[in-house]
């Protein structure tokens, strides 16, 4: 079995960055066993392994097990409204399903429904050096935005990456499909695994503790691999995903839920007229001579083209570029807005259906949490045995 885990915070509404950088990739993987072209991994080799796994695993067919989590414990690391958390949690789960996550093929669950997340995070907090966390860019960014530090932010924001490591490690996930902004956190999770396994999971005393607890004496955690999709990457017909969708008001900062300006992002549930208006008003540049990709002086052009390509994954980059390269912004923008509206339309329709049947949604989440809990408890026990805790009998 190969296990995939990923999640999105339920704060605010999901935007195109979350969708193109994460959820759309999950759906692709769930349905095809592959992510959109991913030059950051071993590429072709990897694709072959996915299709017909006959090396390494000795001819055993790899079964993918997908876990998609609504990470509500992460959502409280920033100021949040208790009147909205439950609603936005259900909304996020419904959106996963509306976007194509099939509860028959993948597990969908809410992080706080599986207590092992918070518990393992505590153990790992005690096994992670402060200065590893002090290096985290997201912490520095978010702390700055929240007004510096001191009493304006909670400790949880600082240890956020440790909770994220716990999320991943609990499921012994092999692959973690996330956007480019999470690369540093993924690296940290790998560092935590190495340090933990090295410090606690070696030697005869470890073997003896495992034996007493009835566990095999292998390392407590699997080192996860990041799956990060490069901008508009892809080839033969597919344009791939977008590693980092940028803000509509600033092509150099990422589209984000926590940006107070709603015009900086397209939310997956924005109605068509709102999408059109946001695109109409979004930042462009005054370069003459048409629209182009990958000019470092034109971050907005690259971003808008990336979005245009990503919402039409069946069309090649070359084809799209031929279509739009001679255009002025005034011509391109309505085209882009239409493409986004056309892509999101069916998702929005399905979302309304899923939300109309809360019993179904709750059932999916309960089943997801039960399945997740079973695996998570096993890992938590292994971590506790490794650290020397008494295990209740
Ligand atoms: P916040 O600003 O509160 O951190 P967010 O918009 O970054 O919210 P997250 O829940 O932190 O959303 O991220 C969920 C997933 O979406 C992650 O896999 C992350 O890499 C991906 N993601 C978030 N923003 C972008 C973006 N602008 N482009 C591509 N992927 C993104
Ligand atoms: Mg984020």
TrEMBL record:
MF (Gene Ontology): ATP binding; tryptophan-tRNA ligase activity
Region named Disordered: 37-56
Enzyme class: ligase
GO biological process terms, semicolon-separated: translation
Record's catalysed reaction(s): tRNA(Trp) + L-tryptophan + ATP = L-tryptophyl-tRNA(Trp) + AMP + diphosphate + H(+)
GO CC term (a single one): mitochondrion
The protein's Enzyme Commission number: 6.1.1.2
Protein name: tryptophan--tRNA ligase
Organism the protein comes from: Stephanodiscus triporus
First and last residues shown, out of full length: 103 to 495 of 495
């Amino acid at each position: 079995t190969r296990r995939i885990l990923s999640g999105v915070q339920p704060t605010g509404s999901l935007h195109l960055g979350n969708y193109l950088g994460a959820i759309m990739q999950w759906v692709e993987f769930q349905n095809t066993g592959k992510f959109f072209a991913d030059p950051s991994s071993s590429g072709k080799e990897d694709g072959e392994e996915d299709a017909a796994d006959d090396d390494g695993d000795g001819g055993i067919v790899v079964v993918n097990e997908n876990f998609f989590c609504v990470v509500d414990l992460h959502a409280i690391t920033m100021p949040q409204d208790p009147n909205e958390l439950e609603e936005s949690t259900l909304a996020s789960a419904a959106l996963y399903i509306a976007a194509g996550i099939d509860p028959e093929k993948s597990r969908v669950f809410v992080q706080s429904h599986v207590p092992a997340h918070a518990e393992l995070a505590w153990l790992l907090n005690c096994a992670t050096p402060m200065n590893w966390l002090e290096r985290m860019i997201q912490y520095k960014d978010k702390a700055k935005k929240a007004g510096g530090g001191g009493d304006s932010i909670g400790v949880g924001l600082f240890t956020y990456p440790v909770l994220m490591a716990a999320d991943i490690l609990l499921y012994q996930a092999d692959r973690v499909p996330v956007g480019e902004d999470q690369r540093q956190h993924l690296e940290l999770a790998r560092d935590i695994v190495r340090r933990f396994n090295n410090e606690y999971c070696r030697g005869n005393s470890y073997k003896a503790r495992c034996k007493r607890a009835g566990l095999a004496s292998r390392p407590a955690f699997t080192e996860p691999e990041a799956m990060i999709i490069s901008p508009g990457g892809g080839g033969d017909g597919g344009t791939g995903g977008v590693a980092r969708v940028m803000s509509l008001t600033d092509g150099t900062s990422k589209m984000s839920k926590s940006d107070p300006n709603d015009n900086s992002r397209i939310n997956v549930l924005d109605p068509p007229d709102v999408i059109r208006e946001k695109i109409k008003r979004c930042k462009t540049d005054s370069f003459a001579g048409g629209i182009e990709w990958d000019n470092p002086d034109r971050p907005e052009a690259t971003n808008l083209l990336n979005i245009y390509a990503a919402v039409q994954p069946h069309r090649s980059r070359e084809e799209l570029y031929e279509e739009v390269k001679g255009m002025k912004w005034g011509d391109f923008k309505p085209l882009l807005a239409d493409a986004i509206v056309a892509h999101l339309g069916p998702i929005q329709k399905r979302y309304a259906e899923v939300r109309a049947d809360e019993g179904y949604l709750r059932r999916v989440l309960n089943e997801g949490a039960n399945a997740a809990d079973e695996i998570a408890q096993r890992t938590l026990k292994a971590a506790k045995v490794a650290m020397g805790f008494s295990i209740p009998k």
